[in-house]
Amino acid sequence: MGLVYCDICSNNSFSKHSYFIPGAEVRIICRFNSASSRTREMITFSANRTTNELGLYKLDITSLEGVACAAEAKKDSLMASCQASLIGSSKDSCKVPGFRTTTDQVVFKSKRSNLCVYGFTALNFRPLQKNLHLCGK
């Protein structure tokens, strides 16, 4: 899950003039290693999502046989990862991509139900021109 906002001041940060964008399009790509000790398969899938009225997008992944997203990984290997990228903005006044692709993810894991929630850094769009009246130089 993650958020998409309009960076009114074009400084890649959420300011008092920024707002979340409903209807923004985001592409999520996930990769999971197989939990089987007999094979070294990698499962990859992608999905497009649209932000809700709060600028939030999420992807619910049903349980996949042979994939243990909550399994402990070795320190030098990544068992699972997901990344989100901007596709398009629903706001004509704020449609220039800022942060296009997530750079970090935070994973909350529950071993009981093999449930993982991936939280992404926020993505943003910005206006074609910075509003000097609101943001200064």
Structure notes:
With 137 residues, this protein is mainly beta. Residues 73-78 have low confidence and may be disordered. The protein has a domain at 2-28 and 44-63 and 82-124. The protein has one helix at residues 132-135; strands at 2-6, 19-20, 25-33, 42-50, 56-57, 80-88, 96-97, 105-110, 115-120, 123-126. The chain is 3% helix and 39% strand. Strands 1, 2, 5, 7 and 10 form a 5-stranded mixed beta sheet that branches. Strands 4-3-6 form a 3-stranded antiparallel beta sheet, with no helix packed on it. This is Pollen Ole e 1 allergen and extensin family protein. It holds the Pfam family Pollen_Ole_e_1. It comes from Arabidopsis arenosa (Sand rock-cress).
The value of Rg in angstroms is: 18 Å
* Count of DSSP strands: 10
Residue-averaged pLDDT: 81
Structural class: mainly beta
How much helix is in the residues? under 10%
Our estimate of the beta-strand percent is 35-45%
How would you sum up the major sheet?
A: 5 strands, mixed
Cα shape: elongated
Unreliable sequence segments: 73-78
Q: How many helix segments?
A: 1
Order of helices and strands, N to C? EEEEEEEEEEH
Distance between the termini: 33 Å
Keywords:
mainly beta; elongated; 1 helix; 137 residues; three-stranded antiparallel β-sheet; 10 strands; 39% strand; five-stranded mixed β-sheet
In short, what is this structure?
The chain is mainly beta. It has a domain at 2-28 and 44-63 and 82-124. It has one helix spanning 132-135; strands spanning 2-6, 19-20, 25-33, 42-50, 56-57, 80-88, 96-97, 105-110, 115-120, 123-126.
